[in-house]
Design brief:
Layout: E1 5-8, H1 14-25, H2 32-37, E2 44-50, E3 56-64, E4 68-76, H3 85-99, E5 104-110, H4 114-122, E6 126-131, E7 141-147
Parallel strand pairs: 4-5
Antiparallel strand pairs: 1-2, 2-3, 3-4, 5-7, 6-7
EC number: 2.3.1.-
Pfam families: Acetyltransf_1
InterPro entries: Acyl_CoA_acyltransferase, GNAT_dom, YpeA/RimI_acetyltransf
Length: 148
C-alpha cells in the first residue's frame, strides 16, 4: 500500500472520472451523468488513487453525513486490482470520515463480489442488512457498517 497515493479530484477531473468508472465497472457503470453529478452532490467527496505519476488507477466517492458517513462507490481499474489500491483508498476515506466527526460509516456491496466483501471485512465492516434486487441486473446488496 505504501506505493499508492490518494488525492482529491476536482471538477476539472470529471471526464477522467467518467472514463475510469466506466472502465472499472463496465455494464454496471452509473453512467456519465450520474458520475459527473457526484461533484455537485451535497457532502460528497471524490478521491483518486494511483502511483506518484498522478494518473489515477482508482477512485472512491463518499458522503459526509455528520456523525455518519456513506461509502458510495469505490473502483479500481482491472490492471491495478489486487495490489492494495482499493485498501489504500478505503483507509483514506475512513480517516477523513473520522476526522470529520463521523462515528460510523455505511455501504452497500454486491453480495456476489467476494473481493470487495473481503476488502470491507478486513477494514472492520460487518454485515448489518441486505437489499434485495438492489442492482439493475437484479443482484442483491449487503449493507455493511464500520465503527470509526
Amino acid at each position: 500500500m505504501s506505493n499508492w497515493r490518494v488525492w482529491r479530484a476536482s471538477i476539472e477531473d470529471q471526464e477522467t472520472l467518467v472514463q475510469l468508472e466506466r472502465h472499472a465497472f463496465g455494464a454496471r457503470s452509473w453512467g456519465a451523468d450520474a458520475v459527473k453529478a457526484s461533484f455537485d452532490a451535497a457532502g460528497v467527496s471524490v478521491l483518486f488513487g494511483g502511483r506518484a505519476d498522478d494518473i489515477p488507477s482508482g477512485f472512491v466517492m463518499w458522503r459526509d453525513l455528520g456523525e455518519e458517513a456513506e461509502l458510495l462507490t469505490i473502483g479500481v481499474s482491472p490492471a491495478s486490482r489486487g495490489a492494495g489500491l482499493g485498501a489504500a483508498m478505503l483507509q483514506s476515506v475512513l480517516a477523513a470520515a473520522r476526522k470529520g466527526g463521523a462515528h460510523k460509516i455505511y455501504l452497500e456491496v454486491d453480495r456476489q463480489n467476494p473481493a470487495a466483501l473481503r476488502l470491507y471485512q478486513k477494514a472492520g465492516f460487518a454485515n448489518v442488512g441486505q437489499r434485495k434486487a438492489y442492482y439493475r441486473d437484479g443482484g442483491d446488496a449487503s449493507v455493511m457498517a464500520c465503527g470509526l
